[in-house]
C-alpha cells in the first residue's frame, strides 16, 4: 500500500446517486442442487462525484453485485435506485439507464473488436443510442478527455497498433462519449504494466474532478483502493463486512478479513495473515458470522477471551447500511 496521502480530495455531494437497497441475487443450483446466494443482502450508496472501491477475494460476489448495479443481472429481491428512481428493467428504460451508467472492463483487448478502428469503437455507443449531434466532434472530445491527443491521430488505428494503456484509454473514451454520470470499472488496471497503472488511475481521478463523474471501482487490490477511492466497501461471501472512508478502513481495519487482506501488502507491518481454505460455497453459507470458519481471531482464541466466540459461530450479523459512516459486521470488533 502506498505511503502517500489517499487520493480523495473532492467531497462528495449530498444525496446518493446510486443505491442498492436490500439486494439479494441467487442462482439456481446445478441439477436441482441448493441455490447459490451470490449477493446475500447488500445496502450500498454511491454519491455524486464519489469514487467507491468494492474490494474482496475472487468469488466473493463483487462482480455479480456490480453487474446488478448496471442492470445486467436483475436482483432476486431488493432494488437498485438511480437518481431517486427505482431501476426499470424494461428494454427501453434499461437502454436509457445504460447511457447514464457505463461499464469499463478489465481487459481492453477483450473489450475492443480487433476489426474496428478506434473511431468506430468509440462511436459505437453513440450509434446505439441514436446520437443526433456531430459524431466526429463527440468522438474526438471523448478521446481527448481520455488522454489520447491529438485524437484524430488515433481515429484510423486498430487495437493491435496500440499499447495496453492506450487500449484502456480507448475503452474509457467509449464510456465517456455518452457523458455518463457514473462508471463501473471492473479491475480497470489489473491487466496493465505497473508503469501504466498510475496513469490510468490519475485519469480516473481527473475525470472525477473535472466532470463530477462518480465511479464504482471493483478490485482485489487494496493498494489501488488507497490511491483512488473516497470510500471502501469490503465484501466477503455475498455481503459487505466493513465499510467507511479509505483512511479509516485501510489505516485502522476492524474486521479480521480486512486485516488479513491488508497484511499481505509489502508495506504492511508484522507477518502476513494466511487464511486457511477457500471462501465457502455460496450455496452453503455457514451460520453465524460467515467468515468464522477462516477467522484468525477465532482460531487464536482472541474471540473466546473477548466472550464472543459462541456468537461468532452461531449468531448472524445484520446487513450494514449503505450510508457513508464506518461500519463493521464482526462480533469481536464490536466487543472491543
UniProtKB/TrEMBL annotation:
Domain ABC transporter spans what residues?
18-262
Q: Which domain of life is it from?
A: Bacteria
Does Electron transport count among this protein's keywords? no
An example of a Pfam family matching this protein is: ABC_tran
Q: Which UniProt keywords apply?
A: ATP-binding, Nucleotide-binding, Transport
Q: Which InterPro entries match?
A: AAA+_ATPase, ABC_transp_ATP-bind, ABC_transporter-like_ATP-bd, ABC_transporter-like_CS, Oligopep_ABC_C, P-loop_NTPase
For this chain, the family text in UniProt reads: Belongs to the ABC transporter superfamily.
Q: Which GO terms describe its molecular function?
A: ATP binding
> Under what name is this protein listed?
ABC transporter ATP-binding protein
What SUPFAM superfamilies is this protein classified in? P-loop containing nucleoside triphosphate hydrolases
Amino acid at each position: 500500500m502506498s505511503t502517500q496521502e489517499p487520493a480523495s480530495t473532492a467531497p462528495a455531494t449530498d444525496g446518493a446517486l446510486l443505491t442498492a437497497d436490500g439486494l439479494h441475487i441467487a442462482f439456481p443450483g446445478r441439477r436441482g442442487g441448493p441455490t447459490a446466494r451470490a449477493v446475500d443482502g447488500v445496502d450500498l450508496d454511491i454519491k455524486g462525484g464519489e469514487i467507491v472501491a468494492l474490494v474482496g477475494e475472487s468469488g466473493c460476489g463483487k462482480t455479480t453485485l456490480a453487474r446488478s448495479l448496471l442492470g445486467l443481472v436483475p436482483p432476486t429481491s431488493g432494488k437498485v435506485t438511480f437518481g431517486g428512481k427505482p431501476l426499470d428493467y424494461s428494454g427501453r428504460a434499461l437502454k436509457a439507464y445504460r447511457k447514464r451508467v457505463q461499464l469499463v472492463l478489465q481487459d481492453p483487448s477483450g473489450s475492443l473488436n480487433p476489426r474496428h478502428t478506434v473511431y468506430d469503437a468509440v462511436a459505437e455507443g453513440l450509434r446505439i443510442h441514436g446520437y443526433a449531434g456531430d459524431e466526429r466532434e463527440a468522438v474526438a472530445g471523448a478521446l481527448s478527455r481520455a488522454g489520447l491527443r491529438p485524437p484524430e491521430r488515433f481515429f484510423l488505428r486498430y487495437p493491435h497498433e496500440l499499447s495496453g494503456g492506450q487500449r484502456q484509454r480507448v475503452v474509457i473514451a467509449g464510456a465517456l462519449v455518452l457523458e455518463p454520470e457514473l462508471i463501473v470499472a471492473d479491475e480497470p488496471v489489473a491487466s496493465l504494466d505497473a508503469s501504466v497503472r498510475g496513469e490510468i488511475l490519475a485519469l480516473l481521478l481527473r475525470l472525477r474532478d473535472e466532470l463530477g463523474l462518480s465511479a464504482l471501482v471493483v478490485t482485489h487490490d487494496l493498494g489501488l483502493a488507497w490511491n483512488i477511492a473516497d470510500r471502501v466497501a469490503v465484501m466477503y461471501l455475498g455481503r459487505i463486512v466493513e465499510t467507511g472512508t479509505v483512511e479509516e478502513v485501510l489505516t485502522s481495519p476492524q474486521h479480521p478479513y480486512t486485516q488479513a487482506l491488508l497484511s499481505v501488502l509489502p508495506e504492511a507491518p508484522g507477518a502476513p495473515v494466511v487464511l486457511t481454505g477457500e471462501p465457502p460455497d455460496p450455496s452453503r453459507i455457514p451460520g453465524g458470522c460467515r467468515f468464522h470458519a477462516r477467522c484468525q481471531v477465532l482460531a487464536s482464541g482472541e474471540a473466546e477471551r473477548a466472550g464472543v466466540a459462541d456468537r461468532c459461530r452461531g449468531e448472524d450479523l445484520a446487513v450494514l447500511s449503505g450510508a457513508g459512516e464506518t461500519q463493521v459486521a464482526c462480533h469481536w470488533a464490536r466487543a472491543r
